Every structure is written in C-alpha cells, then in structure tokens.
Amino acid sequence: MTPVLDRRTFLKGLGVVTVAAACGGAATPSPTATTAVATATAAPTAAPVTGTISVYSALNQSTNDQFFAAFKAAYPGVSIDLLPLAAAGELQTRITAEKASPKADIFIGGSSEFHDPLGKQGLLEAYISPNAKDIAAQFKEPTGLWTGWYTGIFGFISNNDRLTKEIAGKKPATWDDLLDPAWKGKLILPSPTLTGGGYIFIATQIFRFNKDEDKAMAYMKSLHANIAQYIPTSPGALTLIDQGQFVGCPNWSHDILTEKTKGNPVDLTVPADTGFEVGAISIIKGTKNLAAAKALVDWSITKEAGDLNVKLSNRGSTRTDVAAAPGSPGLTSVKLVNYDRQWATDNKTRLLQKWQQTVGL
C-alpha cells in the first residue's frame, strides 16, 4: 500500500469526499479518487501538474462544491480529496495532532489566526505564489506561510419576526446594545474556542476597549448572561436564527447576506466598531504533492477564483480588481476597530483561556 493510499484511506474514514465533478457540479462522495476531464477556464502553471491532493476546508458546502469544481476545470490532472469542516479551530487542532504524519496537503478557509500558529510551529510549507504580487502585504504572511484570499466582516443576524415581537424591532447599533436584559436567553454566539468568528468577536471587544483586557472580559461576562448557547460552527448558528429558534447572533456579514438572499426571514446589521477576518490558504508541511498544492494556492488567488468566491459566498476579496457582492458591506463602508491581527493571533490561546475562566466554561 502506497503512502498516498494510506492517506486517502484515512481520509475516507473521516467522511472525506472526492471532488470529481466538472465546473459547476457538486462534490460527490466516492470510494476512489477520480480525475475529471474538463475545459480549463484559468491559465495553469507552466508545468502540468497531476495527482491527488487532500484538502482540509473550513468553507461551507456550497462554496466547496463549486470552488473546487472550478479548480479542477483549470487543472484537470489534479483530483481533490476533501475534508469539509466549517470550524477552522477543529482543522487547526487536527493538523497539529497529525504533525508527525500529515494527512492533508492544503488548509483552506478560516481566518489567518488559525493558519499563523501552524506556521510558527513549523507545520506549514512556505510558498510565495507568483500571483501573490496582486495581494497587499496586510493580507499575507511575508515568507509565504499563508496567503489571504478573502475578507469577512463581523455583523449581526436577527430573525425578523422574533425581533419585532420580543425586542421591539430594535437592532444593535453597537455591540453594547446586546447587554440589554431584553436579549437574555435570545442570543447565541459561534463558539470562541472552535470557530474563527467566535474568537474574532472576543478580540474585537479587546480592541474596542483599546486593549484593556479587563474591560473586554467584563463585557464578555455580561454578554454571557444573555447568551443561550455557544454553537460549534458559524453556519450552524445561522440556521438556528433562520428557523427562529433564537432571535439574534453575531456572525459573518457575508454569510448572513447569503441566508437573507435565500429567502430566510432574517436581516443583517453591522454594529459600529466591528472586526474582520482575512481568510487564508496554506500548504501543510510534508505534503505528498507539492506541485499540485502550489497550483491550488496559485489558482485560489487569481481574479477568476476571487470573482467566483464573491459570487458563491458574498465575501470580500483581497484582490482590488474583484468587485464586491451587491449589498455587501466593505472594509471602507463600515466602522472597524483598529484590529491588530498579529497581536490577536499571538495571544489567541491565552485570551481564550482567560475568557473561559471569566465566563466559567
């Protein structure tokens, strides 16, 4: 049994799916990896690349399906074994646990806060893509350990009917508005320990209080009194608001906009002084197919991939030549906190422990 077969067998045991569809098709679980034959829609790298790569993805299913199908159309010689988990923290933990024998080649999606620590632990392969010249320095790690390819702004989703009946239709203009006792038991939050959104929400409060951690933790403790549940994934939290099981939830603006355009009875608000993420892609050190892994990084930061991701997810792009989705908030159209991403990344473990001690979880 070859090392590649060992890895694939392992991934299948985790519920991994093989992306075998042509552009526009859906990911289909398959017992064996296959190579799709499709017309290239983007210029591949100079040297043809082939083989299979295993991808750990924090993107949601609909984005995974079409994004990787489009990549396969551009690189028909490459097949992808995909492990989708819409919780970047779980993927970071898995990659760390597998460091002695890496099972994946690529980690895609999730805020850079989850990629950067892996790089510092020596678990990522440094690669500066030729296409990274089109990405501003603030959106990429300087040595190529990770590259940012999208942005997301933290907002607030509310269920229209319950908001009207139970909160008098009052949407939060600031994050402090969520401390109103009227919200008690009606809010949920993506888990700060499992999701990028949950942690960025905590970091946002710290920057909102000018890095006064005690004030920020006092806010989080007061908010905890109004939180009914911490949800393991950000998409899972959105579904609960769609269904009217709870009234509101801090969450990603692009995902909220997507839920709204599906016809769900929800609305998007972006409170003042909010935070944002830089969604990243990185190559896992020990990859069995470095050429194909580089190809996926190269393609993910093309204009074509940026346009597709905006269309599929309503996220922003780190490329200036990619237009924003209609109705989506942009980094220059909302009031952001002065988000020190490197500080937030370097202090993530300590701050999460402090939050857990503060709220008693």
Order of helices and strands: HEEHEHEHEEHEHHEHEHEEHHEHH
Radius of gyration: 20 Å
| Biggest sheet record | 10 strands, mixed
Annotation, overall tally of beta strands: 12
Polypeptide structure, described:
- The N terminus is likely disordered.
- 37% of the residues lie in helices and 19% in strands.
- The chain is globular.
- It contains 13 helices and twelve strands.
- The termini are far apart.
- It has 361 residues and is of the alpha+beta class.
- The strands form two sheets. Strands 1, 2, 3, 4, 5, 6, 9, 10, 11 and 12 form a ten-stranded mixed beta sheet that branches.
- Helix 2 runs antiparallel to helix 11, helix 6 packs across helix 7 and helix 7 packs across helix 13.
Layout of SSEs?
Blueprint: H1 3-13, E1 17-19, E2 51-57, H2 61-74, E3 78-84, H3 88-97, E4 106-111, H4 112-120, E5 124-125, E6 147-159, H5 160-166, E7 187-190, H6 196-208, H7 213-224, E8 227-231, H8 234-242, E9 248-252, H9 253-261, E10 266-269, E11 276-284, H10 290-300, H11 303-313, E12 316-317, H12 341-346, H13 348-359
Parallel strand pairs: 2-3, 2-4, 7-8
Antiparallel strand pairs: 1-3, 4-11, 5-11, 6-9, 6-10, 6-11, 6-12
